[in-house]
UniProtKB/TrEMBL annotation:
Pfam families assigned: ABC_tran
Ranges that cross the membrane: none
Protein's organism: Pelagirhabdus alkalitolerans
Residue ranges of domain ABC transporter in the record: 6-236
The entry's keywords: ATP-binding, Nucleotide-binding, Transport
Molecular function in Gene Ontology: ATP binding; ATP hydrolysis activity
Identification of the protein by name: Phosphate ABC transporter ATP-binding protein, PhoT family
InterPro entries xref list: AAA+_ATPase, ABC_transporter-like_ATP-bd, ABC_transporter-like_CS, P-loop_NTPase
Amino acid sequence: MTQPIIKLKNISYKLENTLILNNISGAIDTGTMTSFIGPSGSGKSTLFRLLNGLKTANSGHIYIQNKSIDTFDPIELRQLVGIVLQEAIMIKGTVYDNLSIPTQLKDETLSEEKAKELLTLVNLDPSILMQDARTLSGGQKQKVSIARTLVNQPTILLLDEITSSLDPVSQKAIESLVKDLHSRLGLTILWITHSIEQAKEVSESIWIMKDGQVIEKSTSHELEQTTNQDVLSFIKGENQ
């Protein structure tokens, strides 16, 4: 039986006097792909930043591999839990320079051979390694961003709306790539998306958030049968 790799127990997070996350509990099984959907401001990105150690919950407990997140060294945690953001920011320099950032932070060196392997892994031609990263297309930049996150060989991969600014063809290419990485590397993947159709396409389970709470957890099939009025309202609004 698959064991949870992430467990959330009564997680709440406040920013000043505003409650961003409100008493969230649940578990993510090892090796699964889970989508998080919901209106803007529902707390999805904040939850991901708690999982990556970029923010700290005001109350509750997060466990990763049965270990309290508070006991992880920050660098160790960010190697275990990689995050790819909506905007694939490229620093000034080559693709290699951008791929090297995680190793530089550890005073290590990324070999060109390894860098080329990573490009191949994300369906990019290794010949772009010494190309100016800022000249790449949006889809190429996002693939480089994914490859950069994979440098640390994370077990958990958080994807925060990584296709929202891409054209439809590039979106499909990224979806296909992520599904392939999930299968080949055995990653546990959590994906924030505003698109219910994308969530159904890529994931085994779907968490729906509203106002800092998880209002439904379901499979794609179960979602089609839901009677939850908040969920139905979100689906209706998303399809208009």
